[in-house]
């Protein structure tokens, strides 16, 4: 519950600091989607049921510590991405370029094209590893991977439209950071 609370509160707080014009209650990401709510409730149910029937399964310290490290890494990477992007960061993929929108390629964006997605990917899977939830762990990994595969392609279409050759050069040099996700394919 602490990692979940910290994640949602810090999403709002960092948005308030970096991009106050886009700040709303939606910045907490609490009402992200029905799928997000189902995933959260499913993980709580899995933990409760498994803890009742197989409490020793929830006592694997090294596994919980590994999950905690994934959560901390993911949270730090995502917030570093948000701070680095500043007012360029938005929770909604933009279809129109604002006057102040610039291509951010420094900081964590020099390591990954989509560091906020990488952070959230490992944070979400880490929550399930920390809880020793094997069913939701696998389900989260598959679902989040699919979500970011599609989201990355959608966002990169906009970024190519906004920044053209500058983004294509960046795309050649820097990986997405997400396993087995290359981003949108560009035919020249």
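^ Assign residues to that structure.
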């Amino acid at each position: 519950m602490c990692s979940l609370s910290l994640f949602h509160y810090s999403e709002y707080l960092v948005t308030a600091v970096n991009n106050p014009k886009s700040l709303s209650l939606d910045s907490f990401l609490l009402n992200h989607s029905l799928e997000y709510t189902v995933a959260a409730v499913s993980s709580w149910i899995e933990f409760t049921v498994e803890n009742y029937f197989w409490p020793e399964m929830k006592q694997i310290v090294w596994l919980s510590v590994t999950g905690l490290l994934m959560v901390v890494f993911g949270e730090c990477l995502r917030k570093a991405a948000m701070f680095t992007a500043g007012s360029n960061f938005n929770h909604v993929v933009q279809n129109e370029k604002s006057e102040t929108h610039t291509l951010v390629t420094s900081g964590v964006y020099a390591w990954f094209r989509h560091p906020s997605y990488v952070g959230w990917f490992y944070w979400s899977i880490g929550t399930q590893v920390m809880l020793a939830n094997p069913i939701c762990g696998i389900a989260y990994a598959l679902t989040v991977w699919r979500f970011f595969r599609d989201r990355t392609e959608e966002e990169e279409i906009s970024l190519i439209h906004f920044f053209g050759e500058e983004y294509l050069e960046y795309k050649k040099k820097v990986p997405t950071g997400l396993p087995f996700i290359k981003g949108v394919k560009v035919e020249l």
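The chain is about 60% helix and 0% strand.
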